Amino acid sequence: MRMYRDSESIRRVSTEEPDKQLRELIARRILDLADYPDYELDNLLNIITIEPSDAIADLGFLLGDRLPELVEYHTAWVELTYIISDDGFGWVVYVPVDHPFIETLPPQN
Which end of the chain is more exposed for a tag (fewer CB within 10 A), N or C? Predict the structure, then answer.
């Protein structure tokens, strides 16, 4: 599991992540937040990438207590967005499509 909690690491992973699809997904999420130029990225979101061998229970504080507001299925990744505060701050969690946790999510439309 990798966690990106500061603006610098979030920007860096959007350009340096070896997995091309994941890199592009993160870059797109950053671009979506360009409408908020007065805020640092880490005031808007944090990012978690789950490895295939990671236990989701390690994120129980996040995943076990609430449902994601948005689930987006991609070729190799599922993107889960959790809004965790009234000011709109959220976690974006990327889980490999073959991770067992994916079977517990609502079906893809």
Answer: C
